[in-house]
Each structure stands twice: as C-alpha cells, then as structure tokens.
Specification:
single chain; alpha/beta; TIM Barrel; eight-stranded parallel β-barrel; 53% helix; binds erythose-4-phosphate; Probable transaldolase; TAL/FSA; Transaldolase_3B/F6P_aldolase; cytoplasm
Amino acid sequence: MKFFIDTANLQEIQEAQNLGVLDGVTTNPSLMAKEGISGKDNIIAHYKAICAIVDGDVSAEVISTDYEGMIAEGEILAALDEKIVVKVPMIKDGIRAIRYFSNKGIKTNCTLVFSAGQALLAAKAGATYVSPFVGRLDDISFDGTKLIEQIRTIYDNYGFETEILAASIRHPVHILQCAEIGADVMTGPLSAILALLKHPLTDIGLEKFMKDMAGKWN
Ligand code: E4P
C-alpha cells in the first residue's frame, strides 16, 4: 500500500518524507488556501516546492469546473513536473477532461468520489487514481470502507488499472481497514501515519529495556 500525505504544508511534507515511508502527496483547494497560497504564480511555485521535497506523485487540483478551463489549467500543472497528477472533480466535464488527459499520457486523480458508479466512470475514462472519500462518508453515517470494498471488487472483476486512492483518511484504523481490503494507496494527515507507531506495550517494553541496561554501554 502506498502512503500519500494529504496536505499542502511544506514542513509536514518534509517531516513525512524524512520518515522514509512517503510515496506521494495529495492537495486540494482547501488545503492550498489553508497555507495562504493564492495567485497563479504562487500556486505554481508551491507545487514546484512540494515536488522538490517528495519522490512520488503530487496531486494538484484544477480550480475550473468547465471542460476548457480544466484542460487549460491541467496542462499548465502537468508541465511543471513529471510528478504532477492533475486532480479533477467527479463531474461530467471532469470525466471528459480525464479522458482527454489520459489520451495525452497525463496522470489524473478523479476526486470527490462517493459512489461505486462514480468510481466505475472514472476508471472507464482512464483515471490514474480514483479518490473515494472514506472519512466524509463516515461523517454521514455511511461506512466509507464499504465503498472501498465495492470499488475493489468492480475494478478486479474487469482488470481496471485505475488505482484506488482511499482519501479523507482520518485515523490509523481507516488505514488498516483500507489495507485489508486492498486499496492501492491511502492519503491522510501525518498524524494518522504517526499513530501507526503507537502501542503501549512498545513503550512499556522499551522503558524496561532501557532501565535494565542503563549505564552498561561503557
Ligand atoms: C482527497 O484527496 C482530499 O484531499 C482529502 O483526502 C479530503 O479529506 P478531508 O475529508 O479530511 O478533508
């Protein structure tokens, strides 16, 4: 399972990269706005800065919602770095745009996916990644991981190569559930990744080991 971090914060991205387990980054317009990024030049500079930190794919979302606008923006974004994946919303023009980018060999991430039907369409259009939002479904009392299961079954039935990018991951249990189901990628905050480290028996065990061998190195 690939680990992506869902943030536009450079410090957090660097910290995750330093951990040695990071495979990529996803951003969205809200995350960019949270970092105070606005204006075409600043947006471009920020994506370049992210690409300079990580080795893997970096999802950069278009802000336009019409076909021509998404194509124009996506082509600019894709030209910035080969790591850039153009993130496109699950709307009619978005599906057309994904088909266009796919035909040109430009990587795409179909975002705001909340149903298996939407995921099927994204795969048919040739999306590189599909992003079902697990946490936001949980928020409305629908088990988001059930959607991941459904998409896994459908994609496996037909051999679709679109990667399932479990998004809106909120905590370590989400990561484990998606890993058991076989999601290709998960994206979430650094806190969810770091929470995988934690176990009280590890802390208790380490404390005892340190106490037993205290001062015995030299
Ligand atoms: C997907 O790529 C989105 O950026 C993201 O995962 C949304 O997560 P949220 O529901 O925590 O905002």
